[in-house]
Amino acid sequence: MIPPAAVLMDIEGTTTPIAFVHDVLFPYARKRLPGWCKTNCTAPVIDAVAALAPGQDVVQTLLGWMDRDEKITPLKTIQGMIWAEGYASGEIKGNIYPDIAPALRRWSKAGLRLFVYSSGSVDAQKLLFGHSTEGDLTPLFQGFFDTFVGPKRAAKSYTDICRGANISAHEFLFLSDVEAELDAAAASGLRTCQLVRPHDNTIASTRHAVAANFAEVAPQFGLPRVS
After folding, report:
1. Tens of pLDDT along 107-117?
2. What domains are there in the chain, each with its CATH number?
3. What local confidence, expressed as pLDDT, does residue 121 receive?
């Protein structure tokens, strides 16, 4: 087996508990959203919201998108800005699964190139890994991608990521808990593995390799083992 040269990973449900996103990050942003919009009413990202929902109240539009967990770039950008304040103040620490930091350190040391692709903004991704419960993990990554590259369930997004990273699709392994995302990545030629974490109620795929944690991913793809 020729191991992949690079690993592309999702965040929610893959490196980070879904509960952290929905029970900590989302409520934190929602509570502070009206005040943030008032303070930053002239920010270009506010104009982007208004352009997507002309004639509608910006705050109510954003709250509606949040309630529906819409993957809309201006919303994700604003959430990231609000979370930045929380991380900076120490109110928020990025929660990651206990198997993540050892795996990332081991794989990075072995020469694997590590990337993140999440619907959360690149800034939000860097904040989570930069202020994680295991310290600053951002130096281990070669790059971060968000919805600016395209939807996570569109095959073209993964083709564009491969092009941006200058890595062939067959050299990439994509890790996610969402089968539709794995389908899109596989359609672009990436190798795939679904993370089925306890307590996340994820249904195991029949089309992709499955693992309960990063330690179980390693032997399936010839990656350095994680103790």
Report:
1. 999 999 999 99
2. 6-16+94-221 (3.40.50.1000), 20-89 (1.10.720)
3. 87
